[in-house]
Structure formats: structure tokens, C-alpha cells
Amino acid sequence: MSAERTFSEHRGLLHAVAYRVLGSVTEAEDVVQDAWLRWSRVDVATVVDAEGYLVRVATRLAIDRLRSAQVRREHYVGPWLPEPLLTGPDVAESAVLADSVSTAMLFVLETLSPMERAVFVLSEAFGYSHLETARLLGRNHASVRQVAHRAKKAVEARRRRYDTDEATKRQVTERFLAACLGGDLKSLMEVLAPDVTMVSDGGGITGAPRKPIHGYEYVARAIVILSKRRPDGSHAQVLQVNGGPGIVVYSGRSPVLAITLHLLDGAIETVHVVSNPEKLTGVEM
Asked: Which end of the chain is more exposed for a tag (fewer CB within 10 A), N or C?
């Protein structure tokens, strides 16, 4: 099999791993490109395990990028959210993959060190054993096992358990969108949990709030105001975003806003809004 064909067969996996480690579509794509450049210089006939080799290269590249990215994110204007990504039905149908790619989980993963994050992604999202993960990362088996335990414990302590029923999420997302488009404050408040939180990421480029907003009255009013600021002629769609129903607003074919909703007991508990144009390449049509 040619080097190009082998790499093409694993490209999706490499991007999936890199995106979960980085929380960035553009940086994940850069990692995949760098991995290809390295792969193209290898004598493929000497590689016994192509998947292992490529995942190892991509993961290490992602770790290096994440270390520098974390420094930049410390100076980010306003809240930092993962870049939204359109996902297919294969992700939505897998509870593990859908959870690992949700903006809520990626947001929690930001609290881990680069090595902890990589170990967690490889073991929890993609099912690699601790021994396999140690080989991929070039680390001692015992140390990887300890890192995995520490990372999982940290994630469990910080994550919130949201509803996973796909039909309920889609129904609530559609009700939310209808209320937004109609500017219906009452209907909007009916789908929000009393202690709902909205986190907006505009990167200082758009007029997004630079602090999280709490409480269903304040969040509902902020969303109505946001809806009224939509560009003339724009349209909104319910699409599969980060493993579940989400909303993307387009002006022509260009995305201007992406919203992911996280439900608890059928009510919207958390709203993630990304309007930074530099972070919307993953939801382009």
C-alpha cells in the first residue's frame, strides 16, 4: 500500500485525536499536515504498525502545540471556548466519542496539563490501554497509569453530567432556536434552567460578553439582544455540532456564530456561544 493511501486511511483518526488534545480545529489540521510531512519521509515498508506510528507522531505534535497554546490562552480576551466542529452521525451514535468531543468536556480538559490531556484522550476517548498509551507517548507504563488516574480523577471532579438523549436535545435545541428567532423572551425562559450559565467567546473581536452570564432572566435577555444583532439576510440551522444538536448562524455561506447547549433534566443548563470568526472554520459549509 502506498504512503499516501495509508495516511489517507488514518487521517480522520489523527485529526480526531489532535482536535481533542488541542480543542482547536485549525491547530488539529496543522498537526495532521505536519504528521504527513514526517510520514512522507519514512520508508513505509519498515513500519510494522502504521496506525501506532501515526498516532504517536500526531499526539506528540499536538502536545507540543498545546504547551505553547496554553501560554497564548492565558492572554485571551474574554472566556476561551473550544472551536466548534461539525460532526457526523458516527460520533453522535457513540456515547463515548460524543462525550469526548462535546464543548463541555473539551472545556474541562483545558484544566489538565498537556500530558494529562493526551493520556486521557487516548485512553478514555479512543480506548488505548495504558500500556499502548505509554508506547505511543514514549513514557514508562507505570507513570502513564498514574497520569491516567490523576487526569480521570480531575475530570470527574470538574465535569457536569448532562442529558444524553439525542431526541430530547434536538427538541429543546429547536425550541430554543424558534424562541431566539421570534424574540420570544417567555418561550426562551421556559427552556432554560433557573441557574443557567452562558459563556461567550468573541476573542475581543465581536461584541460578545467578556464574562459568563448567570441566571435564566439575564441569559434570556442577553440571547434576545444577540439574536437582534444577527446580520441582515443571515440564517440559522440546527446541525450536529461537537457530537450533538447545535445551532450555527450563517451569513451567506460564512458562519458568524455557533451555539452548543448542554441540558440537565430536560432544561438548558449551559450555553456555549462562539462568535470569534477565527474559531469558526470547523462549522463552514
From this structure: N
Number of domains in the chain: 2
Does residue 99 lie in a domain region? no
C-alpha 129/C-alpha 148 separation (Å) is 10
- Cβ-contact 280, 253 below 8 angstroms: no
Secondary structure (3-state) at 271 = strand
Q: Judge if 17 and 149 occupy the same domain.
A: yes
* Same domain (yes/no): 132, 185: no
Conformation bin of residue 159: beta by default, left when phi > 0, alpha when psi is -120 to 50: beta
The structure's pTM equals: 0.94
Q: Could you count the other beta carbons within 10 Å of the beta carbon of residue 178?
A: 14
Asked if 255 and 133 sit in the same domain, the reply is no
CA distance 15 to 67: 18
Range of the domain at 146: 3-82+112-158
Match 420570544 to its residue by C-alpha cell. 184
Tens digits of pLDDT across the chain (285 residues)? 688 999 999 999 999 999 999 999 999 999 999 999 999 999 888 999 999 999 999 999 999 999 998 888 888 999 999 999 999 887 866 778 888 999 999 999 999 999 999 999 999 999 999 999 999 999 999 999 999 999 999 999 999 889 889 999 999 999 999 999 998 999 999 999 999 999 999 999 998 999 999 999 999 999 999 888 888 899 999 999 999 999 999 999 999 999 999 999 999 999 999 999 999 999 998
Do 124 and 17 fall within a single domain? Answer: yes
